[in-house]
Amino acid sequence: MFFLPVALVTAGAAALLNFWLGLRIGRLRISENIMVGDGGNPRLIARMRAQLNFAEYAPLVLILIALVELARGTQAWLWGVAALFIVGRVLHVFGMDGWRPGRMIGILATMLTMLGLAGYAVYLGYTGLNPLR
Fold it and tell me: What pTM does this model have?
C-alpha cells in the first residue's frame, strides 16, 4: 500500500481552500441577491474567477506532487513546495479581492511551483527510464 502524506495533506488543504472559496461566493450571492450568474457584479465576478483559477491549477499541481512523492518518497522540500502552492493560492484570493500584491505573489508562487514540479517530474521520468544513466 502506498502512503503519500504530502499529497494527502495538500489535497486536504486544497479541498478546504476550495470550500472556503465557494462559501465566499455563496455569501456574496446571498447579500447581493444574485442567485444565478454574476449579475454584472464586479466583486462576484472576481470571486468566481478566483475559484475557477484555483480549480484550473490545483488538480495538475496535486497530481505532480503525488507523482513526485511516489517516485522520490516524502521529502522535506516537497512539503515546502506544497505549502508554497497553498499559500500562493490564498494570496491570489486576497489579490482578486483588491490587494494587488497578493495576486501577483500568488500567481508567481503558483507558476513557479507548477514549473518546478513539472521540470522535476520530466527529469525523474527521463532518468528513471533511461538505461544509460
Answer: 0.89
Q: Please report the sign of the dihedral spanned by the C-alpha atoms of residue 10, residue 61, residue 23, residue 19.
A: negative
Total count of residues recorded for the chain:
133
User: What nine digits make up the cell of 3?
Assistant: 502512503
> pLDDT tens-digit profile of 11-35?
999 999 999 999 999 999 999 999 9
Sign for the CA dihedral angle at 41, 45, 46, 47 comes to positive
Provide mean pLDDT across the span 98-115: 96
Give the residue with greater pLDDT, 127 vs 65. Answer: 65
**Residue 81 corresponds to which cell in the numbers above?**
513546495
Secondary structure of the chain in HEC code, one letter for each residue: CCCCHHHHHHHHHHHHHHHHHHHHHHHHHHHHCCCCCCCCCHHHHHHHHHHHHHHHHHHHHHHHHHHHHHHHCCCHHHHHHHHHHHHHHHHHHHHHCCCHHHHHHHHHHHHHHHHHHHHHHHHHHHHHHCCCC
